[in-house]
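R.M. (postdoc): so does anyone remember the format we settled on? I'll just put the structure tokens first.
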């Protein structure tokens, strides 16, 4: 037993070193992260949450209509701006609604979304 006693401090030191290498188990967040939603800005209430028919009544026929799976993108172009409206179904077998809009100048620079909605509304009135 005397032979084991001197080895005991070395074994304890080795265990202490090995325990320093251990990691705590990762904890999962209690709530999964939420997908951010686009806040309604002034002037966007005319398009956000609306269906394709409503957009067509506001702006006329889209210049581009792209479908990918259940999603849909409608693009409206004027001399002032380009508006992309992204429609997604709120639930299975439901009609897609506008969940996000993006606006830019014809050269690709950013443009205020509400101003683009107003400009496109005037586009239809001019026809």
């Amino acid at each position: 037993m005397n032979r084991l006693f001197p080895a005991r401090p070395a074994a304890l030191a080795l265990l202490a070193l090995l325990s320093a290498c251990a990691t705590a188990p990762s904890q999962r967040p209690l709530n999964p992260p939420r997908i951010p939603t686009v806040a309604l800005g002034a002037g966007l209430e005319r398009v956000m949450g609306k269906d394709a028919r409503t957009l067509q009544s506001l702006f006329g026929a889209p210049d581009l209509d792209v479908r990918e799976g259940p999603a849909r993108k409608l693009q409206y172009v004027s001399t002032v701006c380009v508006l992309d409206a992204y429609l997604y179904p709120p639930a299975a077998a439901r009609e897609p609604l506008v969940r996000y809009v993006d606006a830019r100048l014809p050269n690709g620079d950013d443009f205020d979304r509400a101003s683009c909605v107003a400009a496109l509304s005037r586009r239809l009135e001019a026809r």
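R.M.: ...and that's the designed sequence above, right after the tokens. Also worth knowing: The domain at 52-126 is CATH 3.30.1450 (Beta-lactamase Inhibitory Protein; Chain:B, domain 1). The longest strand covers residues 97-104.
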